[in-house]
Design brief:
By secondary structure, the protein is an alpha+beta fold. The chain contains six helices and eleven strands. The termini are far apart.
Amino acid sequence: MTSAYLTLVGWLAQVPFWEAKPPHEWTDEEIHRVLAASPWVKTVAVRTPGGSVPGVFVYLATARPIRAAEQELRRRRDPPAPEDPAPAEYEEFLGQNEGKYVVLAVRVDNPSALADAGQSRRMEQECVMIADRDRFRLVGHFPPTPSDPYLRLVFPRPARRDFRRLRFDLYLPTAVFPYRTVEFDVSELHYQGKPEY
């Protein structure tokens, strides 16, 4: 074997699969890993005097690897029922607003909590995204649906590209303890040579 071949094999062994091959070649397990254990995913727990409470699972839904994984997962499944057009509406929103927003997807186990208008209004007022010191208020959301159990929180995309931390201070009426903070180190969010969030 040539040294160039061995170098290529060594490089491929170190590069994450989402960098090494296109999404249509990802296995079902690899799609699950992107959506559950990649740099764009976090579980946010809260410690209380009585111990930890269940974590809230979140991911940066506008990051290209996450979008690719979600699209590939939908492609491999049966299409959504006609009474649940929400995934198509969400994808249409992203397509029409490419690069304008950051969407944080939050796994929701109790969607009925969002039916309380006061709690939803409080969520809209108190959820904030912080890029280093610049603050961005929530501009909208997509509620969870039968085929998509994620609350999708929409924030304006920062114009600056040199920030190092992306933090979300959240009020989630669907969580046992509704106040949560999640932080991403932008240096860990690289895909094809540039930050993705």
